[in-house]
Amino acid sequence: MAEILTPFLAAFILAYILRPVCTWLGRHRVPHPIAALISMVTGLTILFLILVLFGTLLKQEIPMIRAQAPHWIQDIQAWLEPKLVQFHIQLDWVGLKTSATEKVAQHLNDNADALVSSTFDTVLMSGSSIVTAFVNSVLILFVMFYLLLDWHHFFQLLKKMIPVRAQATVQQLAMQADTLLSQYLRGMFIVIAIMATYYGCGLSLVGLNGAIPLGVFTALMIVIPYIGIALGFSLAVLTTLLQFGIDIHMIGVLAVYGGGQMIEGFFLTPRLVGERIGLHPVAVLFALLFFGQLFGFFGVLLALPISAVTLVLVKFAWQRYQQSAWYQQ
Questions:
Q1: 260-301 tens-digit pLDDT
Q2: Nearest 5°: phi and psi at 162?
Q3: Which of 223, 232, 253, 288 has a CA-to-CA distance to 213 between 20 and 30 Å?
């Protein structure tokens, strides 16, 4: 059921994130359908800019890797070959260098005919995947628009489906979850904005090419605990190696990311996001793996918010259990 539920879950989360924009437009007397449409366009524009950012990083990194690959193999040969000779092991270094250069160049071939042919073959081989992605995208946009348009009516309908004796309890739990998620999202947006400025300025001072896109990318990856910052740091180290090699600039990058982790981990996140979710680090890692396996990359992004809602339910269930006669006997 994961493949069926994922588009609806994605639409609901996106509608929830964009709902404040729609509500703000409604307060300024913008007709509700137009407010929902403007909110969707705003969200899609931000998503498009993020994709452009990723494309900029790839466009910068891949040619540098292509240019540096032969030199890397030379350095590895100079360091490793004397050690291999002691064990009577010989490698075809010329063949390795040629093969590595060709493999990288294969993805960066400037020949238009080869590019069109490769794209056409890829489209033919993955036609069903493209159709599925297109259908899911249309479904997400469709559901998201109607959720933004009829958000309150949707929840009123859900409320009618709940037994009357349980409506007050369910409403209370929903309000607690909504408050927790709202605080979490607002805090994360502020943290991302501050850290994007910090990493962008810090990496620019170090002298890295593409410092601003790399800084913004690192800040955006904060939404994925542990894994995100590791990915941003790895890209920064790779960029430094490609541009400068191992020198004083590497120390600068280490200082920028070390300072960033201290600012974000010990000051910004505790104050702006705080112990809102209250999950143990082991529970966070479990949530990342579990929801990632269930819903893919989108599940990784949603692991923490979904865990927050789950925690509200678990706390309520535990409280009821402790108040039960069976527990107190």
A1: 888 887 777 767 665 556 666 677 677 777 877 776 666 776
A2: -90, 135
A3: 288
